[in-house]
Amino acid sequence: MKNLLCFGLTILALFGLAGCGGIDEETAARIDKLEQVASEQADRIAEQTARISEQSSNLKKQEALLSGDKPIKTLALQELRLVDGQGKTYAEFKSTGKSAGLYVYKKDGELRASLSVTANGNSSLMFHSESKDQRLKLSSEETGSAGLWLYDNNNVRRADFSMRSDGIPNMNLYDTNNIKRAAVGMSLAGEPNLWLFGADKGQRLTLGMSANQVAGLWTYDNAGKRRAELVTSPKGVPSLGLYDPNNIRRGVFGASADGSSGMWLLDKNKVMRSTLTEHRDGGIGLWLVDKKGARRAALSWNANSTPGLWFWNKNAKLIFTAPSQQRRAPKKPRSRVR
Predict the structure, then answer these.
(1) Which of the listed residues 113, 141, 169 is the one where a domain comes to its end?
(2) Which of 10, 47, 123, 288 suits a disulfide with 297, CB 3.0-4.6 Å?
(3) Do 260 and 280 touch, CB atoms closer than 8 A?
(4) pTM
(5) Residue 213 lies in a domain
(6) What secondary structure does DSSP assign to 218-256, as a single string?
(7) At a CB cut-off of 8 Å and minimum separation 6, what does 118 contact?
(8) What is the mean pLDDT of each run of 10 residues along the chain (338 residues)?
């Protein structure tokens, strides 16, 4: 069509000029200009024709789809809208280049829900409130992680439940300042744990089980240092431990599997300085130790309720005993401090 149009305009120009006795340079230039204009117009007409043809083809496909005739194989759309009788949009299915999804609106045009997939493969389902803020988000990442997020009326995240790509599940709770205050999780080995945090984001309490199957409760100060623990060993031995600000254990109270119990006090160098124990046979004893760990005094009652008192010098030599005839000193108790 383009060539035909150019040819027609050129013939008309030649006939018009032929009656004038020939074609000079100026006329030839005019003819070239006319040919250029005709070529540009022909290009525009060709583009419009192709566009009309494509639109006509799409309309025919849509007509066939709506009429229930022979189904079409492909329908190419960038945006599809569902509107009411007044033309208000209630739903959109569209692609923006960065994401594609389904968006559902209220009567006043406010977004209330969406289901979308981004260009990098992340998918999400979101619900919005009357104030247009998101209230719930369900997401799956291309990395393999997935999660559920909940938001309050101020669009502040308050809770989430997620699954990492390595299969570890976690649940977190947040305050109104979006600061995590509690968490529940599980390790790869399957040990569950509960964590509580302060408003300063510092860990304050842990309840759970360690990799060596020790179950317990651990508390921390504002600096994040452990100050107390209540634990039970895999063999069922319970103990209560107290720590100083330098995370050094200074006191332990516990019970053993054989039925005996005891209390141990330690100094800042981790040396056990005092021990009070109760044996399963009914005996009880108190031992005092110096800074080097050498016993210096002992007071005990055996199973027969016979009391005894002993003193040692710094060279570990027994220097006093009462009753005087009781020269055999009790053995220094074994420490159950882990």
Answers:
(1) 169
(2) 288
(3) yes
(4) 0.66
(5) no
(6) EEE-TTS-EEEEEEE-TTS-EEEEEE-TTS-EEEEEEE-
(7) 98, 99
(8) 49 49 69 79 85 78 64 76 87 88 87 90 88 86 89 92 89 96 88 94 93 91 94 91 95 86 93 88 87 90 79 90 68 54
